[in-house]
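One example given next:
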Amino acid sequence: MALSRVDFPDPEAPTMTQRAPRATENVTSWSTSTRDSPAPKCRDNPSTRTCGVGVWVTPPVLHPTKTPLALHTCTGDRQSPSAPWGGRYARCMSVDSVDRRVSHRPGEASSPAAELVGNVWHLRTTEAVRQILREKDATTQAGFSAELMPDSIGERPILFMDGDEHRRQRTKVARFFAPKTVTNRYRRLMEERADALVADALAATTFRLDDLSLQYSTEVAAQVIGLTNSNAKGMARRLERLFAQPDWSPGSTPEGPLRSVWRSVRSHAPMAAFHLADVRPAIAARRKAPGEDVISHLLAEGYREPAILIECVTYGAAGMATTREFISMTVLPLLADADLRARYLAGEEEERFDILHEILRLEPIIGHLYRRAARDLDLTVDGETVAIRRGQLIDLYVRQANSDASTVGECPLDMRPGRPLPRGIGPEVMSFGDGHHKCPGNSLAIQETDILLTRLLRHELVVAKAPVMHWEDLTAGYALREFVLTTPKPPLPVLAVSDERRGPG
């Protein structure tokens, strides 16, 4: 598992020369001022820039392990960071394209668009990724340990299904995640839990955002899944242990017998704890009184307990773990950029969602998707034919597809909420996937994130401890941990945002 320290990107910092990391270097250092320390003034020197209201980052941004990407020059007029954004953010924030991502996975290549390494195809453009995900019955699921799933569990989880079987189940399950259902059935719950959790965090003065976001996302997802017959805080802890498993990716070298035994032993205990404490009580309750949730649906479909357990793990990972990371990641640019934060808090829902989608485009929680070719197929990538043969593994680079300038336009690594995109491409591009396996909970994830952040970011917040970013091979995604925020006590009811630096009082 690779480790790095998170930096706040400086909107005015020039592009810096990349260097190879030292052998002992695995983090990018950064620091924040204390509340009693004078905040630096906002001026041209990027090392002394005020990066937000209530949070000041002192060193320049350096990503020593970042693979340089091909940057494009903006054609629009230069405007200062405090100037109004034209249209619906229809401008770049600088003349030259600046990489505004927080996450940079060490050693990940940005080119070529398509390459065959061994028996694995690596695809890095939006169109190539989209073609594969939309190819009907031409590929099968290979990511998220799908190919390690034993037949003994009975019914396969929907994530691992393909073909007609998947389409039938997907249609039935989709109703639980439809935008109207999310609003009508779960919005009040999300508002109540967000109000309570934010109030508790502010009253404590110092809190870990990654813990708060896990508790919140667990409670929301539990309602949709039907995991409501156990203690939510305990379930959050059990899921965290369950997801902290040894890394594995489909393209990795096959593990030996000793590692296979270790993986089995390590994964059994947290899975058993989640099963006995959370899943089994929920199943028992819904056998007696079915509800409008996923577990009740699975029971009605004749699913047996082992298959329901795996399904709950699948939805738990999708609805709890990924939303947790997205909430923590979204707070970083919103704290670092006072202008962005002000517009988010002042905007209507559509405008706020534009900002969230753009952050998700730049910072996808799942970095790679994997498919296995079920038949021979030919793709057109950058005008050339790519011949993928039956049985070959296909590695789809979500991060690179999301920053493909031919799809997202100029300044692909800049923050441009509401940027125009080709028809059929969502504002988050490939962050929720595409085709028949596109994440059904995308509406839920965006809405619950927005509900929490609109309540949390109204208050003055200071970063007491920068989050540590872990990289996990299973999802090629990040995990932000030990993200500590502080706030004055008593909490301020409303944050008055201005372009001037606010003092600690």
About this structure: The longest strand covers residues 368-373. The domain at 2-486 is CATH 1.10.630.10 (Cytochrome p450). The chain has one domain: 2-486.
